[in-house]
Design goal:
With 673 residues, the chain is α+β, with helices and mostly antiparallel strands. Helix content is 26%, strand content 32%. The protein has 5 domains: 100 residues, Rossmann fold, CATH 3.40.50; 70 residues, ATP-grasp fold, A domain (Dna Ligase, domain 1, 2-Layer Sandwich); 248 residues, D-amino Acid Aminotransferase, Chain A, domain 1; 127 residues, Glycoprotein, Type 4 Pilin; 76 residues, RNA polymerase II/Efflux pump adaptor protein, barrel-sandwich hybrid domain (OB fold (Dihydrolipoamide Acetyltransferase, E2P), Beta Barrel), CATH 2.40.50.100. The chain has an 8-stranded antiparallel beta sheet. Strand 27 and strand 28 form a beta hairpin. Helix 4 runs antiparallel to helix 5 and helix 12 runs antiparallel to helix 13. Bound molecules: adenosine-5'-diphosphate (2 copies) and magnesium ion.
Amino acid sequence: MALFRKILVANRGEIACRVMRTARRLGIATVAVYSDADAGAPHVRMADAAHRIGPPAPSESYLQAARVIEAARSSGAEAVHPGYGFLSENAAFAEACAEAGLVFIGPPPAAIRAMGLKGAAKALMEKAGVPVVPGYHGDDQSPELLAAEAARIGYPVLIKAVAGGGGKGMRRVDRPAEFAAALDGARREARGAFGDDKVLIEKYLVKPRHIEIQVFADMQGNAVHLFERDCSLQRRHQKVIEEAPAPGMPPAMREAMGRAAVAAARAIGYVGAGTVEFIADVAEGLRPDAFYFMEMNTRLQVEHPVTEMITGQDLVEWQIRVAAGQRLPLDQEALAIDGHAFEARVYAEDPARGFLPSIGRLLRLRPPAEGPHVRVDSGVVEGDSVTPHYDPMIAKLIVWDRDRASALRHLASALERFEVAGLTSNVDFLGAVARHPAFAAGDVDTGFIERHRGELLPEAAAPGQRALAVAAAGVLLERAQQARAQAARSGDPHSPWSEADGWRLNDLGRADLRFLSAEGEHGVSVHYLTRGWRFEIGGARLEVQAEMDGDGRLAVEIDGVRLSATLVRHGGELTLLMPGETARLSLFDPLAVTDDDEGAGDLVAAPMPGRIIQVLAAPGLDVAKGQPLLILEAMKMEHTIAAPRAGTIEKIAYAAGDQVAEGATLLTFRREE
Ligand code: ADP
Ligand code: ADP
Ligand code: MG
């Protein structure tokens, strides 16, 4: 069977670019679709043709099946690749493609439907003899019955939206008294994200590992698995770092899981790429009889690259070949695991603030260079913005080597070289995980991040001497560069300003710099030396020399110790990227200060734009530090806004249903004497 001549990619970001890369290699022309927010996005530039399909909101663009299909028809595409998310698991869309004479590069609609709702999928798998997590997945959704089922299953339990995905609509409940409120929250989130508030209830496994199997099937009835991925490293039930193979996987268990996954695929007449997600109870280690079916994702998975790295296969190529009617490229016996791979999801989010998404412009985005050990899948470039409209993933960093320890070294060092500035990213956090001894030992389960929180998320601390010295050196070098440029413009080559030596730039031979961080003000007094400076920082004296290239990269020597760093400057805001550490400072400008900061702590501001969905406090109420005050829905997730301190609420500025801007004052505390 011949492959397609042209395909449309019904997605955006890294996955759209990823699919187009393979299409191009196979000589297939590509068509992109884009929303107004993505008119200049990399996936649009990469495609041979691109069609606008609507405004930024996904519901008005990437989820508009009819517009996507119209774009495919008018561009002459023969097939549609849906990527992940958006329309990828939408059976009606797969059907509409077929009706329009387009090949949907994915499973048959019936297979998508069979796995679309978690409850029905579990019932089906039980029938097919695949072990499932004990729980309730019936049609009766009355709160009383659900509470009774939870009691029968035994606490802790997990409430899951049957239509859920991406960790949304999920609540762990530890005590019967908390059940009703958790059910409300899960239902509300599910209704908002999936338009369906049905839930199921499961036994919550307290020490679980998430291990999933990549499966593939063709139209000729062949089905294989491409081994497992371990995705246990999660926050808020969402994957952070994935790896293949799973550390410590006994061959008998791999065998049993692979068999169960292929049975699951066969039970629903599967075709194409799919992932069967299992949860393994590791209270007694990995055992071939202690894993349970959780759900099947009937699409390409975000973390598919780790499987590609250990099998040497291109899964998008497999998808395209199978969709064109070809046989699976390889049989089970021809597939083998070679080496070890990790994937780290680099997100625009703030791990120190509950992994809250962060939006803004990527003033700097320099992933490490790609090579035999390092792959970077990204859908944004420096200068692009991360907006609240879409998933805040910046890139996926994938590494490979012969064994786990070596691959992990590549992961840690590649993360140290990964430069992101302009918004808060999780790069330092990922680096801390990659360097953690328990992670190196393969001691992973879904509680890893919570358990090691203290070491992975250090308390916010004032910038250290090293950071301040590097920042000061960068600022001084920038000033010298500006002075030189000014001298060149003034046309007097003999002006003392055209000399780069610092001491000539300042009559007194000294100067003071003041920086602000979230933790306060930090002074650096500067004494110019013939070469470099002597800095006084909080009583300590440091001799510093530095050079900076035109790209913000600094080579700094502090008391004879060299280090490299990058300084990104945006007005008075500085971001300092050092290996494993990012510092954000502002250069203190006395004229810019208008507000007194006595009011700090008296108000609570919106951490991101969103919609207030519930107000849990009222004027006059005495609250404790950490007490939930408001629930904000942003980026399809619910965020609880808690009291920054104990006190009495004075005023609440918004009501449920109100839209709020980032930084808007949500409520104020009564001032204490
Ligand atoms: P994976 O297991 O591949 O990581 P996720 O469940 O995390 O899959 O989802 C992958 C992507 O698809 C994420 O960007 C997520 O936000 C999005 N996504 C998942 N399920 C849905 C859904 N039902 N509707 C819209 N987007 C979804
Ligand atoms: P989603 O569709 O959002 O991906 P899943 O059912 O795949 O939902 O579950 C997501 C994650 O939640 C799992 O990877 C796991 O960490 C956790 N989880 C799911 N079910 C259980 C359970 N029964 N006990 C403990 N943790 C669970
Ligand atoms: Mg899942």
